[in-house]
Amino acid sequence: MYNFDLVRPTSIDEAVAALGEEEAQPLGGGQTLIPTLKQRLAMPSKLVSLTAIAEMKGVCKTDDNALAIGGGTNHATVAQEAAADFPGLAHLAANIGDPAVRSRGTIGGSLANNDPSACYPAAALGTGATIKTNKREIAADDYFQGMFATALEEGEIITEVRLPIPEASNYQKFEQPASRFALVGVFVAKYADGVRVAVTGASNDGVFRWSEAEAALSSDFSAGAVDGLSTPDGSGMISDLHGSGDYRAHLVKVLTKRAVAAAS
Amino acid sequence: MQAAGWTRIGKAQTRDGDDLLLRGEGRFAGDARAEGALWLHVLRSDHAAGEIRALDVAAAREAPGVHAVYTGADQDGLQPFALRYVPAGCEVAPTPFLPLATDRVRFAGEPVAAIVAESRDAALDAAELILLDIADAPAVTDARAAAVDGAPRVWADRPNLVFTQELGDRAAFEEACASADHVLTARLEISRVAAVALEPRNALATPLDGGRLHLRTGTQAPHRVKGEVAHVLGLDPGRIVVEAEHTGGSFGMRNGAYPEDVLVLMAAARLGRPVRWQATRSDSFLSDTQSREMSVDATLALDADGRFLALGVDGYAPVGAQLGQMAMHPMSSNMPGIVGVYRTPVLHTVMRGVFVNTMHMAPYRGAGRPEAIYIMERMVDLAAAALGLDPAELRRRNMIPAAAMPYATPLGYVYDSGDFEAALDTVLTAGDWAGFADRRADSQARGMLRGIGLAAAIEPAGGGPKGAQLPEFARIELDASGARLATGSGDAGQGHGTVFRQVLHDLLGWDGDVTVVAGDTDAVPKGVGTFGSRTMGAAGHAMATAAREIIAKATAQAARHLDVPEGEIAFADGSFKARGTNRVVTLHELCTAQGARFEAEAFVATDAGTLPNGAHLAEVEVDPETGAVQVLSYCVADDVGTVINPLLVEGQVHGGVAQGLGQALYETLTYDETGALLSGSFMDYALPRADDLPFIAVHHSPTPTRANALGAKGAGESGTVGALPAVMNAVCNALASAGAGPMDMPATPARVWAALNRKETP
């Protein structure tokens, strides 16, 4: 690890100001950035920790039936506090990494990093969430822009994520055997006006919506409706030690079916 | 060889000293403090092959806090590492294996320079100032590919084929196949794995007064490390002290000296300061010895009744880029063992060791025995399927019966004891072999594939059943202050101290405290080490030998004390009794009340190793939609001879099964076409975790051996030996129920799915 300065602002305004300085970089729960620093793969001169900002923490239900989660809220907190209103999301949060990861990692950090194998991007895209930053509100459909790429600008911080609460939802993760990240993860959410299906882990372009499944499930929300679909094209999917693109494409269909069957 | 009067041997006891480890108070080499210690960082090649065109360390030498930077050009006076093992019947010249690369690099991860600085950060900063230019050359990491004419040569001046070891009678084998009713052939691929010790390797060298050097490191064989570093440094071994306290996993990977051990000693001697090196996990994946990989064509000939007539094996295995001390051992040392527990009159083996552009091989828990039993037991299952026979029945039909002991196998192993059929029956009952069809039907109803896999295992422990073994040292001292045992067989988590105390108690009837001294080459003058499941057979035998001398000496003392002739004294349960009288004195009283002091030492070898054996039964369920494999149940009937401590034996079996199951289902070291290690971290190298393992039921089936004074066979590796074939047989059995397979390890979800769908495996 190279030396760096660390600041821990206690308000969003202070954090934004600190991030305005040259080569400053935000630090959420550190579950990606700290290992990167330990390998000397990054060399920021200043890290702005977002973990001491009270206004960025917590989970609450909004008047329009969404769950509002502060960007600095860790996974363990979401697992606990979303359980009653949004069990599909609570279940997702409860199965990220291990207890140590869940008590450090944050939803804002996960979405800002947009790892192609992370779980939260599937929930955000699968619910049509709104990503609130210090500057603006971004619809999930506009936010994710490919592997590790998002609509965030330099110095922009995710302050809150609003996820509309579905009538039924479920997240199915098939774990990569070594890292236990999602080899493929599928989030299915049923709303009054239709069904959303978001897939993580599989595509070279990061999280995506499986529109054929959404259409089929919107008219018939049953595992059988997925059976009738052809498997997504594997040619644009990740192919590595742990599975070919075709295998991942196949898992997308299997997990979508299982998510629908398990949705509650 | 169960002796009357043993009261501690055979008792389950928890390990002494676990509380320290559980509280994080273990004393590993990384915990050792040394005033003014410098940090040594090893700069490694990130190319698998190529000439070093430029290596400029001038800026690094001038960097803040840097005391020295060594390259291949700074190794004056060093001797190459020596071979400790050459396959029987082969002549192999060593490679010029020095700690740092000289003209070329030959694998990714090869040490190129060593930076010694005030701190880790200073050393890492300096390493970034080194200009290293390697002319990238083609690399080869697969043994078969490397053995082909025209393959990139690892060493320009010698072919990649290092040795070809042929054992047995080729003509007899061919004749047996020609006249057999059934001849089965299969290509079997055994994957390459890493030991993955919990504690990464480390070394701390400290200059001592009088020109001696102290090396603190985690190792299973301090005396070996001492001899090997002395050899490479060109020093009299008397000038080196090696000390290990806690060692966080060894498994064969820590059974000798490494380049980094030499580098810290060289730096400490030249700089007059303590010097420390500590591997990261990334360093470990690149630079720990590797093991197991082989690709073999196996042939099993059977008669019409399914009796084995002949077994043939023709294979290739990588040795790595350098001939490390034991690089040629895992793939060649146990070829005679491939016949396993069966009467197989003819065995013919050809094994080739091949240079490849990777770190070199060394034994890893089992050292050639898991590979051997995997080959045999896969062939038995394939034969059972081909002949339409029950796999248990085919095994039973061919097993060497207990009444046939001692039994000589075709290539000269002599099995002295064992009841293989009894072990088989134990697991068939415990695992409800007969009820499998019903359980499979239940799984099918849920859309799952169920498989069951047997393995009958045997493994030469201690160094093989052929001939005299390596010796081990034990010194016993008794006096009023207590008992002390010094031995060369140290502990890396097995619980040696606990079982040594149990044994010493029963050998001497000594109830008092016992201090165990091991791991320090000054405190223990001689020794060999802990490997090959040899400790109870080797160190236990040395203890028994020394204990006999103690009793003889104490008998004389007791005779004087009781005022009777020595011939009138009988020793039992710690007491010397004058025959026909009620006059008794205990060994303890002689030491305490009489102030006697006894000591005896032995550095002895047994005439033969031992042959732990047993049967394993695994049951798995495969999800055909995802390829995921779950091990549902696992049971083992294990014959480790005299069971000193059943709890610790079970622990050894559990750990061994976990490592074998890990290889079968998850682990593999994978290289890309440039020779870069793809699975170089826990993000890509999959280890089994607690929630992957079923409850592992261990049934003790001891048949004590006469090979050593305790009747104990080895217990450290048998779990691994049986687990590879049992798990893979179960997976292949599940696949066969869907008309798919067989497949090679590892049975990862993607590979199982590919096998089920007949797609190319990743």
From TrEMBL, chain A:
SUPFAM superfamilies: CO dehydrogenase flavoprotein C-terminal domain-like (SSF55447), FAD-binding/transporter-associated domain-like (SSF56176). Pfam families: FAD_binding_5 (PF00941). Residues 1-168 form the FAD-binding PCMH-type domain. This is Carbon-monoxide dehydrogenase medium subunit. GO terms for molecular function: FAD binding; oxidoreductase activity. Keywords: FAD, Flavoprotein, Oxidoreductase.
UniProtKB/TrEMBL annotation, chain B:
Keywords: Molybdenum, Oxidoreductase. SMART domains: Ald_Xan_dh_C. InterPro entries: Ald_Oxase/Xan_DH_a/b, Ald_Oxase/Xan_DH_a/b_sf, Ald_Oxase/xanthine_DH-like, AldOxase/xan_DH_MoCoBD1, AldOxase/xan_DH_MoCoBD2, AldOxase/xan_DH_Mopterin-bd_sf. Residues 23-138 form the Aldehyde oxidase/xanthine dehydrogenase a/b hammerhead domain. The keyword Oxidoreductase applies. One of its GO terms (molecular function) is oxidoreductase activity. Pfam families: Ald_Xan_dh_C, MoCoBD_1, MoCoBD_2. PANTHER family: ALDEHYDE OXIDASE 1-RELATED, XANTHINE DEHYDROGENASE. This is Carbon-monoxide dehydrogenase large subunit. It comes from Roseivivax lentus.
